[in-house]
Amino acid sequence: MEEIFNVQSLSIYRQVPSKNWFTALIPAISAGFPSPAADFIDLEIDLQREIVKNPASTFYGRVKGTSMRDVHIDDGDIIVIDKSLPCKNNCIAVCFLDGDFLVKRIIYDEGGCWLAAENDQYAPIWVAADTDFLVWGIVTNVIKFF
Predict the structure, then answer these.
(1) Closest CA to 140 of 53, 67, 30, 18
(2) Distances from the Cα of 53 to the Cα of 2, 26, 56, 83, 101, angstroms
(3) CA gap 27, 138 in Å, rounded
(4) CATH code: domain of residue 123
(5) What residues does 24 pair with on adjacent strands?
(6) Backbone φ/ψ region at 39: left (φ over 0), alpha (ψ -120 to 50), beta
(7) What 3-state DSSP class applies to 115?
(8) Is residue 108 part of a domain?
(9) φ, ψ for residue 55 (rounded to 5)?
(10) What is the pLDDT along the chain (146 residues), one digit of tens a residue?
(11) Which end of the chain is more exposed for a tag (fewer CB within 10 A), N or C?
C-alpha cells in the first residue's frame, strides 16, 4: 500500500494494483457442528473481490485511537474506505473536519449533523451546515489484528 495522508488520528493509504493480491485456498469453516464432509471442501477466497467493490475509489486507513471501540474499530485496525458510496444517516464515515481526518458515525439532524463516537468517553461533535466539513468516504470493512 502507498501512504497518501498521515494525520494525527488516521493514516490513509491507496492499494497498489497487483495481480496477486490476497487469494487463498482454505477449507470451509463451520460455525456450528463439524461435518465430516467439510474436510474435502476447498474454497478460493479473493479478498480483493470480497472487500473492495470499487477499486478506483477505495482507500485504506490505519486507525489511531479508541473513539470507535464499541463498534469494534480499534487502535491499529485497518479500515476500508469507499469514496464512491453516498453518506446515509447512521453510517460510519471518514470525515475531514478542521484539518483532521476523523472516523465517526454520521447522524443527520436539522441544520447539520452529529459526528458520534462509539465510546462513551468521547462527546459527539456538532457540525453546523455552514462548517467547513467533508464526508471523505464511507467505511465498508475493518481488518482486525489480534
Answers:
(1) 53
(2) 19, 22, 9, 11, 23
(3) 31
(4) 2.10.109.10
(5) 45
(6) alpha
(7) strand
(8) yes
(9) -55, -40
(10) 555 555 556 777 776 555 555 444 445 455 666 666 555 555 677 777 888 889 889 999 999 999 999 999 999 999 999 999 999 999 999 999 888 889 999 999 988 899 999 999 999 999 987 888 999 999 999 999 88
(11) C
Read off the amino acid at residue 34. P
Total of domains in the chain: 1
Instruction: Return the ∠ at Cα 112 (arms to 125 and 13), rounded to 5°.
Output: 60
> Which residues are part of the catalytic machinery?
67, 104
Residue type, 30: S
pTM of the model: 0.75
Q: Which domain holds residue 108?
A: 2-15+53-143
